[in-house]
Amino acid sequence: MIYLDNAATSFPKPESVYQAIDRFNRSIGASPGRSGYATARAADKIVSETRRLLAQLLHVEKASQIVFTANATEALNLGLKGVLRLGDHVVTTVTDHNSVLRPLRSLVDRGQITVTWVPCDGAGFVYPESIHDAIRPNTRLVCITHASNVTGAIHDMEVISTLAHKNGTLLMVDATQTAGCFPIDVQAMQVDLLAFTGHKALLGPQGTGGLYIRPGLEVQPLYEGGTGSQSSSDRQPEKMPDRYESGTPNTPGLAGLSAGLRFVLEEEGVETIQAHEQMLTERLLDRIASVPGVKVYGPPPRARRVAVVSFTLEGCPPLNLAHLLASGFDIAVRSGLHCAPLIHRYLGTSDTGTVRVSLGYFNTADDIDALVAALRQIASKAPTG
Ligand SMILES: Cc1ncc(COP(=O)(O)O)c(C=O)c1O
Predict the structure, then answer these.
(1) Ligand 1 centre and the CA of 81: distance in Å?
(2) pTM of the prediction?
(3) Site residues for ligand 1, CB cut-off 6 Å
């Protein structure tokens, strides 16, 4: 199979990721943070090492400011529900994912907050001036995706961060599509909260993710429970990261994520990964443009983007096209709205969405050529006009 759905979850993972999960499950298997015997200490070490590697990747000064969650969705819910209070206003964008839009919508429906959804242009870019114009005196938070999972467009976080802080609002960034394949420096970006997932470009397993919380920022936990610390008290510990990490963590997953992080940081480097994915994206954009009936949505070639390309084929709805690619050519892509419904109004694809090709570090130029050849064959039979 040619796997081109890395924006959903990356596949395959580096061999070391599979080995780390297996090693944990077979030879360690203990709960971290709760006991002093050897395997419990080994489990502790895996958790703290994963946190340290994430801090290195994201340029976080104190690793304890990163809290682990099950995925980016949980991290985004923690950030949103943890800082927003009755009467707050939030600025988000139409390019954001349902993992942002739905928690916000539910707070709006309960009458707790108001939200402005800032539009994007036809390529999926949000203009910082539009964010500026949306900010009101009671705006507590600007929440924006770093890169769109539909068009790949990367927003200019430095500019957005400056204007958010100039207007006295907090900034939360959804780095789900960028962590691991685009450099991130939370200090340079001056973000207050940054959500990431472990199972996409960080090459870890599903069930991993986390939230960076800027030191000093008050965030209410999503839930409370056992942390292995301060057990004599029935009050949740205040210290980081225990305040937000109740219950036994996904230690096998973190063992795998740690191996993924080592691969990204130490074996390859984010810049190398970014350059490879950019090369593949440009090859795809250059070649797909000549397939009759194909319309590509999103930024032009060589613009600031991640390796996500959305397109449609005249005469062949996205769902059918994805099915034909899978059944006839063993090529895995995603079709539809990609859990980001609002952006499609601006792309003109609200009816049936797009086909989304998302490339990963293990894809090759041959994969692109096979996809383009398959599209040519399908296009030659698709009804036009
Ligand atoms: C931009 C964006 N945000 C959030 C998510 C949710 O990520 P997770 O599946 O790790 O919760 C996704 C996943 O598809 C995404 O693309």
Answers:
(1) 17
(2) 0.97
(3) 7-8, 71-73, 97, 99, 145, 149, 174, 176-177, 197, 209, 339
